[in-house]
Amino acid sequence: MSDEFDDETDLPFETSPAAQPVSELVGDEVERVAPGATLREVCAVLSDRGVGIVGIGDEGGHLDGVVSERDIIAALAAGADPDAVTAGDVEVEHIYYVDPSTTLEEVAAEMLSKWTRHLFVGEPDRLLGVVSMRDVLGAFAVSNELD
User: Fold this and answer.
1) Do 71 and 52 contact (CB within 8 A), yes or no?
2) Which pLDDT belongs to residue 59?
3) Cα 56 to the chain's mean position, in Å?
4) CA-wise closest residue to 120 among 32, 33, 39
């Protein structure tokens, strides 16, 4: 056995993903579109960026609302013209935020209680990013805790 570590405090930090702060999962900034972007344009952003939700508003500023894949599907199913209906027409104005120190266990519980697939990390004027249900599930799957 190697003496790679001098004492117990040098051991690699291993913790359950349930205790991991959500800030460790947040990567890129939240993708944003203008309220006047058509649904077709929003779809292009979602597809190009590989995300399931976009914010409505100016870069770096407060979000006015959000549009998710499901919002677009619902609008199209109701007969919306993707070249005439805008992000502002279908946006959801209530946005759920969590503190960057919130654990993944708490994030998962919040997603279930709010019946949402995305939570924004930070505060409305200090947005760190967004975390999806897939991000949370991936953290647990990688740790092999699903066995």
Assistant:
1) no
2) 79
3) 14
4) 32
